[in-house]
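Training component of the fellowship. As part of building independent skills, the fellow (R.M.) carried out the full modelling exercise for a liganded target. The chosen ligand was glutamine. The inputs are recorded below so that the supervisory panel can assess the work.
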Amino acid sequence: MSKKHSTRYIFVTGGVVSSLGKGIASASLGTLLQSRGLKVTILKCDPYINVDPGTLSPFQHGEVYVTDDGSETDLDLGHYERFLNISMSQKNNTTTGQIYYEVITRERKGDYLGKTVQVIPHITDEIKRRIRDVSKNEPQYDVVITEIGGTVGDIESLPFLEAIRQFRLDVGKENVLNVHLTLIPFIKASGELKTKPTQHSVMRLREIGIQPDILLCRTEQELPNEMKSKIALFCNVPSESVIPAKDVESIYEVPLTLHEEKLDNQVVEKLNLDENPPKLKEWKKFVEKFKNPKHIINIAICGKYIDLHDSYKSIIESFVHAGVENDAKVELKWIASEDLEKEGAKAFLADVSGLLIPGGFGERGIEGKINAVHYARTHKIPFFGICLGLQCAVIEFSRNVCQLTDANSMEFDPETKDPVIDLMEEQKRVKSKGGTMRLGASACQLRKNSHSHRIYGKELIMERHRHRYEVNNNYIEILERHGMIMSGINPDLDLVEMIEIPDHPFFVASQFHPELKSRVLNVHPLFRDFVKAALKFKSS
Ligand code: GLN
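Fellow's submitted model of the complex:
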C-alpha cells in the first residue's frame, strides 16, 4: 500500500539497440515492487500495425501468448505472468494497430464530427486512455508499469513517447517515473566501455521532452564509479540513478541483481511509496536450486519452428520451473520434425529421457512428429503432447494400434478416409484469420482416477486454448477400446481436452497449452510430473 493512495506510473523505454531485455527488466522491477507488498500490473505497448501478433509467423515474432480472456498477445506478457504470478487480459497489451482501429472506427461513427483527426491529440489520447484503463482495478493498483516496445529513435514508437510525455503532466510528475534501459558496449580492441550511445539515446528522449529518472545500463563488464558519474553528468540524472544491469546467467537472477544495485530502493524513494523491505526468500531459493541441480536430463522437443527458440518461450520456461521443482537441469534437445522425417526417430530419440511435441500449424514435418510419437510410445519413453502434439498422438495411435492406416487430421489431408482430427464445428463458418481460433481459458473435467486427475489433484481445471481442430468424437469409442483414454473433456462443448495411455510410464497430451500457466514460484503440474517421469526413465 502506498502512502498517498494514487496509482504510480512507471514507463520503461529502450535505447541504443533492440533485444536488450525490456520485458525482463519490466517483469523484474514488477517482481521487486510486488515483493514489497505493492499491487502491480504491467502494460506492453507494441508499435507495430498488426492488431495483435496472432497472425504473425512464429519465425518473425516468436510465441503468441494467450491470456485467460482469449487475447493473442506479445510474449513479454508471458514473462510478466510468470514473474508476478498474476493473470493478465487483453488490456495488458496494446498495439498501434488497435489504437488506429479504435480511432478510425470512432471517426466513421462521427464521434469527431467537424474535426481533423490527428496523431496529436487523437492517437495520443487513445494511448493515454489505454494506460488509464489498465489501471482500473479493484483493489486499486499501486504501480502500473508500461513497457514501450521498440527503440527510442524509431518512427513507429514516437506517438507512444509523446503520450507518456503528456501523461506526466496529466497525473502529476510526482506519480510518474521514466526508466530508460540502455546499453554500455565494451570495445574489446581498446578494452573500454563506451557511454556515447547512451548519451545519444537519452538526448533523443530529451529532444521530445522526456527526461529519464533512472538509467538501467546493460553491460558485460562491471561499471566503474567514474563511468557512472560520467553517464549521470551527460544524461542529467543523479549518479545513484545510473543502475548497472550486468549480464547474468539466467533471467531469473535479474530481479536479485537489480535489487542489489538498489533499483527498487530508488523507485520507492522517487515515487514516495512505502518502504517495506522486499521479501525475496522464495525467489532466492528458486535461483539457488536452479544454479545447483542434482540431476541432468535430456528432453527432446520435436517441432517446426526450432530455429527460433522464442517460438517456444513458455515451454522453455516451464521446463526451467519443472526442473527446479525436481532438482534437475533439463537439457532441451531441439529436433526439426523434417529432419526426423528423413533420418528416422531412433537417430534422434535413442538418448533422450522424454519427448515433447509442442503446438504448431500446417502440414510440413507432420509425419516426422508422428514417427517421433510412435518411437516414444513403443519404447516407453515419457511423452507429453501439447495441442498439435495431442493431435499427432491420436493420429499415431489410430494408424498403428486401431489399424486405421489412413487416419489423419483434416488440416493435413482433407481427403482422408479417417479424419480422427477434424475442424471444430464453430470453425467451419470462420473466414478471416485474425483472432478467430478457439482462444482462451475454458473448463476441463478430468476423468476420476486417471493419470491426468492424479497429476492435477482435482477434477475441474481451467486451461488456455489456441486451435481450430479437435479430436473427432466419432472415433472416441474405437480409441478407448484400444487403450487410449480421453481423460479430460470440456463439459460444455463436449470436446476432448486430454488423452492418455495408462499402459505407459507417462503418455499424456492436452489440447490446451499448459505452458501458458506455469509460474516461477508455481510450477505447472503437467510439466512437473513429466520431468519427474523423465528422471525415473533415466534412472531405470
Ligand atoms: N494446427 C492445430 C489446430 O489448429 C494445432 C494448433 C496448435 O498446436 N496450437 O488445431
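The panel noted the following from the submitted structure. The mean pLDDT is 95. The first strand starts at residue 8 and ends at 14.
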